[in-house]
Amino acid sequence: LVAAVMSYFFKYNVGSEGLVPQALLALFVAALAAIPLVSFSARRIGYQATYFLGALLLASMFVLIFFIPLTPAWLFAVLIMAGIALSTYFVCPWSMIPDTLDYAEWKSGHRPEGLLYGFFNLGVKLGFTVSGSLAAIVLGLGGYLPNVEQTARSLFAIRSLASWIPAGFVVLSAGLILCYPLSGAFQERVRKGTDALLLGSG
């Protein structure tokens, strides 16, 4: 959603469309640079806690975008912090899939890798589709018209798409991750169970 609206936000709200490439670069370079830190955190406190903390940080940065002065210094500082938080989304979900497969094998004796990875990729693609449609709906409701001076209402809609709306989805994901049961002692129990299954089949 943020990537979809970034060009609108910098063009109309910030007034510097040329900063979009640098903004995206700052966001994703920070995310890539933070991957070792996120991996270390996941080993120490678990994927669930790491994802939750990253989601809270990311939501906070989105909210800040609504309130900070729209200057390059402020925006790039927030984007770098958002990139660090975003790295949890690169690391934790993919790392949680093997644990989910272990759980499925432990419970049923089957390891549905193709099915789980297929649904995961479908969810990612569905997220891109929904975010693009949502951006179009919000822009339409805000009265956005391309390549003209925007009204206060349309500027509010664009800024909301870059702040409150993605923050809401991130908070929702943080709440959902608390329902993820495969952490701590239970995760270790599942792993021992799958190891026992492998030894038994061998």
Blueprint (SSEs and pairs):
Blueprint: H1 2-14, H2 20-33, H3 35-45, H4 47-67, H5 72-108, H6 113-141, H7 152-161, H8 164-177, H9 184-201
Structural notes for this entry:
The chain has 202 residues and is an all-alpha fold. It is 83% helix and 0% strand. The protein contains nine helices and no strands. Helix 2 crosses helix 5 (72-108) and helix 4 packs antiparallel against helix 8 (164-177). The N and C termini lie far apart (48 Å).
Features:
elongated; 9 helices; mainly alpha; 202 residues; single chain; 0% strand
**Secondary-structure element order, N to C:** HHHHHHHHH
- Global structural class: mainly alpha
Query: What integer is the average pLDDT?
Result: 87
Share of β-strand residues: under 5%
Helix fraction, binned, reads: over 70%
The dominant shape is: elongated
Unreliable runs: none
Instruction: Write down the Rg.
Output: 20 Å
The total of helices stands at: 9
- Main sheet record: none
Number of strands: 0
Q: Span between N and C termini?
A: 48 Å
